[in-house]
Design brief:
The protein has about 140 residues and is mainly α. The chain has helices at about 5-65, 70-85, 85-135. Keywords: Coiled coil.
């Protein structure tokens, strides 16, 4: 077998292997995007929980001033309710950090896909050139 034919087969095989690597990177990118989508959804859930918590607080505050005898109970309810606020804000901060990590994962997966795609395209082009050179010889 001639060197040109061997080179053509080698680059054709390399193009196929790199094509498989591109598909694997594409799946990785899609998975990273799904993780990012879920992180964005968690942030939205946390923000909605804080809004709901704030609305409940306003309702409790209104009830505190209506009845003097039950006022102490309402103030205790308000204190307990306010005690949960830092927990909600910590959960939001954690969700934002998770989203940041997920966004970094998407960026990294995208860069890897781009690198693999360039390698595949190069291998396909070289295989074409070697194949064309073989046809020219014949």
């Amino acid at each position: 077998m001639s060197d040109a034919k061997r080179n053509a087969e080698l680059w054709r095989l390399l193009a196929r292997v790199r094509g498989l690597r591109v598909e694997r990177r594409r799946r990785t990118l899609n998975a990273a995007r799904e993780v990012l989508h879920q992180a964005n959804a968690r942030i939205e859930q946390r923000r909605e929980a804080i809004k709901s918590h704030d609305a409940q607080r306003a309702s409790i505050l209104q009830s505190c001033g209506h009845d003097k005898r039950a006022g102490r109970l309402w103030r205790e309810a308000l204190r307990l309710h306010d005690g949960r606020t830092p927990e909600l804000h910590r959960a939001l901060a954690l969700a934002i950090r998770e989203q940041s990590v997920a966004a970094d994962g998407v960026a990294k997966a995208s860069a890897q896909l781009q690198r693999e795609t360039i390698g595949r395209d190069d291998a396909v082009e070289r295989a074409r050139r070697f194949k064309a050179a073989l046809k020219d010889r014949e």
